[in-house]
Amino acid sequence: MKQDMIAILDLGSTRNTDAARAVRALGVYSEIINYDITAQELAALPNLRGIVACGGPNDMVDGVKIRLGEPVRKSGLPVFFFDCEDEGASMPMPAESVNIENALRAFVFDLCHAEANWNMENFIADQVELVRRQVGKKKVLLALSGGVDSSVVAALLLRAIGEQLTCVHVNHGLLRKGEPEQVVQVFRHELGANLVYVDASDRFLDKLAGVADPEDKRKIIGAEFIRVFEEEARKLDGIEFLAQGTIYPDIVESGTKTAKMVKSHHNVGGLPEDLQFSLVEPLKQLFKDEVRACGVALGLPDSMVYRQPFPGPGLGVRCLGAITRDRLELVRASDAILREEFSRAGLDKTVWQYFTVVPDFKSVGVRDNARCFEYPVILRAVNTVDAMTAEVPELEWKVLRRITRRIMEEVPGINRVCFDLSPKPNATIEWE
């Protein structure tokens, strides 16, 4: 790595990512490290110039208060102690925020003498070098969903190892309307990638039959993805690596030593213990906005870089409870209408993510002058920078009314449309 680094030492803060992003905003690379890092692990961090120690409410592990470890104390590196939050305190006033920013800037540049060389060009150059060193002459299989993260990984790996890369797009039956066809068109026919398409819809849906717990669903989907990739790898020669579009929020939300798990991401908590591949994850330290910046720097078109985020488990976490094929089709059809109407209103360029959810219960309604008992649809739209927090945008009433009318008229089995106003936190972006 060519960039200087400031490490964010996790001493129990729930805002470690805010501290990491604040350092990166200064043009210096930052990475969150565990409170119990060893001297050997600390010495292995490249170009480490200083440490920001973030305290907070989660400063007890197994009943013992976390303190600055001996490896950090003896490292000789400058340490900036930052009490990132008091759970009962209000947000800092603007003047206080400026003072914190000025103190952090002085620490990073005046005391640590770090160079502001964190940018996407340097990041890409580093990752290309690291991937080539890791992979050598061997071959890599990329789990290509067609979303932003895996698309950026594909572009980066094509630059790093070219024909050593094989992309596998698995249709697990949980994709949006028209998505498998679009992925094949873009990657095989427009970008010229070596793409293998696998229709495993029935296989995944059979595995998920009767499974209601969202954690179980994610883990089943993650494990089954790996099984499919292993089977495809056996058809090829020399595949020893599996590439994934893992990004930093995936890792944070899957749980750290001081932070409670929000949810297991299929590519983190859902990986089987008997994984037969070594992982290649060049984006795992990037936030979502940084992934998009990386895609732009790699020359990907805006239509791909700014594409709607889509979870790896797909519609499986938007068909709440035990997945049924009929409710899955209701999610798919209502989601297509929502996306069409958002595009028509120009909201696809201003709203970060939007989708529909169908829960596993019905409500009473009226259809054709008779009582009906059908499913509701929940509309979800959020704006965010890094997917760690999110706000709900204010939408025009006429747009919501048009979406509601179309869904109830065009999607049989739906008699109620609701709009989710919950920010993150306390809610998450997805419902499961």
TrEMBL record:
Protein EC: 6.3.5.2
InterPro entries documented for this protein: Class_I_gatase-like, GMP_synth_C, GMPS_ATP_PPase_dom, NAD/GMP_synthase, Rossmann-like_a/b/a_fold
A GO MF term: GMP synthase activity
Keywords: ATP-binding, Glutamine amidotransferase, GMP biosynthesis, Ligase, Nucleotide-binding, Purine biosynthesis
Binding-site positions, ATP: S145, G146, G147, V148, D149, S150, S151
Superkingdom of source: Bacteria
Main function: Catalyzes the synthesis of GMP from XMP.
UniProt name for this protein: GMP synthase (glutamine-hydrolyzing)
Organism, as annotated: Anaerofilum hominis
Name of the gene encoding the protein in the UniProt record: guaA
